[in-house]
Design goal:
The chain is mostly helical. The chain contains 6 helices and no strands.
Protein backbone atom coordinates (compact mmCIF):
# COMPACT_ATOMS: atom_id res chain seq x y z
CA UNK A 1 0.00 0.00 0.00
CA UNK A 2 1.38 3.38 -1.00
CA UNK A 3 1.18 6.13 1.59
CA UNK A 4 1.80 9.61 0.28
CA UNK A 5 4.02 12.22 1.89
CA UNK A 6 1.09 14.22 3.28
CA UNK A 7 0.16 11.23 5.48
CA UNK A 8 3.60 11.37 7.09
CA UNK A 9 3.46 15.15 7.52
CA UNK A 10 -0.04 14.86 9.05
CA UNK A 11 1.21 12.24 11.50
CA UNK A 12 4.12 14.49 12.44
CA UNK A 13 1.93 17.55 13.01
CA UNK A 14 -0.54 15.58 15.13
CA UNK A 15 2.30 13.95 17.09
CA UNK A 16 3.97 17.29 17.85
CA UNK A 17 0.67 18.91 18.85
CA UNK A 18 -0.17 16.08 21.24
CA UNK A 19 3.37 16.16 22.62
CA UNK A 20 3.09 19.87 23.38
CA UNK A 21 -0.27 19.42 25.11
CA UNK A 22 0.85 16.54 27.32
CA UNK A 23 4.17 18.14 28.21
CA UNK A 24 2.49 21.43 29.15
CA UNK A 25 -0.16 19.59 31.18
CA UNK A 26 2.45 17.59 33.07
CA UNK A 27 5.45 19.84 33.54
CA UNK A 28 3.80 23.24 33.59
CA UNK A 29 0.28 22.66 34.89
CA UNK A 30 0.76 19.77 37.34
CA UNK A 31 4.32 20.53 38.47
CA UNK A 32 4.58 24.34 38.34
CA UNK A 33 1.05 25.75 38.59
CA UNK A 34 -0.81 23.27 40.83
CA UNK A 35 2.31 21.51 42.19
CA UNK A 36 2.39 17.74 42.52
CA UNK A 37 0.96 17.77 46.07
CA UNK A 38 -1.83 20.09 44.87
CA UNK A 39 -2.55 17.80 41.94
CA UNK A 40 -2.63 14.81 44.30
CA UNK A 41 -5.08 16.70 46.52
CA UNK A 42 -7.32 17.36 43.51
CA UNK A 43 -7.24 13.68 42.54
CA UNK A 44 -8.26 12.74 46.09
CA UNK A 45 -11.06 15.33 46.04
CA UNK A 46 -12.69 13.59 43.06
CA UNK A 47 -12.37 10.14 44.58
CA UNK A 48 -9.15 8.96 42.97
CA UNK A 49 -6.10 7.75 44.88
CA UNK A 50 -3.79 10.70 45.52
CA UNK A 51 -0.79 8.62 44.40
CA UNK A 52 -2.36 8.33 40.96
CA UNK A 53 -1.52 12.01 40.38
CA UNK A 54 2.20 11.18 40.45
CA UNK A 55 1.71 8.28 38.02
CA UNK A 56 -0.29 10.48 35.66
CA UNK A 57 2.37 13.21 35.87
CA UNK A 58 5.12 10.75 34.93
CA UNK A 59 3.06 9.13 32.17
CA UNK A 60 2.20 12.51 30.65
CA UNK A 61 5.81 13.69 30.79
CA UNK A 62 7.32 10.47 29.40
CA UNK A 63 4.52 10.03 26.86
CA UNK A 64 4.87 13.66 25.78
CA UNK A 65 8.62 13.24 25.26
CA UNK A 66 8.04 9.99 23.34
CA UNK A 67 5.55 11.76 21.07
CA UNK A 68 7.84 14.75 20.62
CA UNK A 69 10.75 12.57 19.54
CA UNK A 70 8.69 10.01 17.67
CA UNK A 71 9.72 7.10 19.85
CA UNK A 72 7.18 4.26 19.78
CA UNK A 73 4.44 6.73 18.93
CA UNK A 74 1.64 4.18 18.74
CA UNK A 75 2.49 2.81 22.17
CA UNK A 76 2.76 6.32 23.62
CA UNK A 77 -0.67 7.22 22.20
CA UNK A 78 -2.23 4.07 23.68
CA UNK A 79 -0.55 4.69 27.04
CA UNK A 80 -1.87 8.26 27.18
CA UNK A 81 -5.40 7.32 26.10
CA UNK A 82 -6.59 6.19 29.57
CA UNK A 83 -5.29 9.47 31.00
CA UNK A 84 -7.24 11.52 28.46
CA UNK A 85 -10.35 9.40 29.04
CA UNK A 86 -9.87 9.83 32.79
CA UNK A 87 -9.67 13.61 32.32
CA UNK A 88 -12.88 13.40 30.29
CA UNK A 89 -14.53 11.59 33.20
CA UNK A 90 -13.13 14.09 35.73
CA UNK A 91 -14.67 17.00 33.81
CA UNK A 92 -18.08 15.45 33.10
CA UNK A 93 -19.77 17.33 35.92
CA UNK A 94 -18.71 20.71 34.53
CA UNK A 95 -20.66 20.29 31.30
CA UNK A 96 -19.62 20.16 27.68
CA UNK A 97 -17.63 23.40 27.18
CA UNK A 98 -14.11 23.51 28.52
CA UNK A 99 -14.56 27.23 29.18
CA UNK A 100 -17.12 26.38 31.90
CA UNK A 101 -16.06 26.74 35.52
CA UNK A 102 -14.08 23.60 36.35
CA UNK A 103 -13.51 22.92 32.65
CA UNK A 104 -15.92 20.88 30.56
CA UNK A 105 -15.27 17.58 28.89
CA UNK A 106 -15.06 18.65 25.22
CA UNK A 107 -11.28 19.21 25.28
CA UNK A 108 -10.19 15.98 27.00
CA UNK A 109 -12.60 14.04 24.79
CA UNK A 110 -11.00 15.62 21.73
CA UNK A 111 -7.55 14.69 23.07
CA UNK A 112 -8.79 11.11 23.48
CA UNK A 113 -9.95 11.02 19.87
CA UNK A 114 -6.70 12.61 18.66
CA UNK A 115 -4.73 9.90 20.48
CA UNK A 116 -6.79 7.21 18.75
CA UNK A 117 -6.11 8.89 15.40
CA UNK A 118 -2.38 9.07 16.23
CA UNK A 119 -2.39 5.36 16.98
CA UNK A 120 -3.89 4.59 13.57
CA UNK A 121 -1.84 7.17 11.62
CA UNK A 122 1.41 6.07 13.21
CA UNK A 123 4.68 7.86 13.74
CA UNK A 124 4.60 10.37 10.92
CA UNK A 125 7.72 11.96 9.49
CA UNK A 126 11.00 12.36 11.35
CA UNK A 127 10.34 9.72 14.03
CA UNK A 128 13.48 8.65 15.86
CA UNK A 129 12.28 5.14 16.64
CA UNK A 130 9.43 3.74 14.62
CA UNK A 131 6.82 1.45 16.13
CA UNK A 132 7.37 -2.23 15.17
CA UNK A 133 4.36 -2.23 12.82
CA UNK A 134 5.70 0.90 11.07
CA UNK A 135 9.12 -0.72 10.56
CA UNK A 136 7.49 -3.82 9.07
CA UNK A 137 5.35 -1.73 6.72
CA UNK A 138 8.35 0.31 5.61
CA UNK A 139 10.31 -2.85 4.92
CA UNK A 140 7.47 -4.33 2.86
CA UNK A 141 7.00 -1.16 0.81
CA UNK A 142 10.70 -1.16 -0.15
CA UNK A 143 10.53 -4.76 -1.37
Amino acid sequence: MHIDRSHHIGGLVLRLGLAAIFLVHSVYLKLVVFTLPGTAEFFASIGLPAALAYIVFIAEAVGGIALLLGVYTRLAALTLLPIALGATWAHLGAGWLFTNQGGGWEYPLFLSLALVVQFFVGDGAFALRRSPSERAAATQSKA
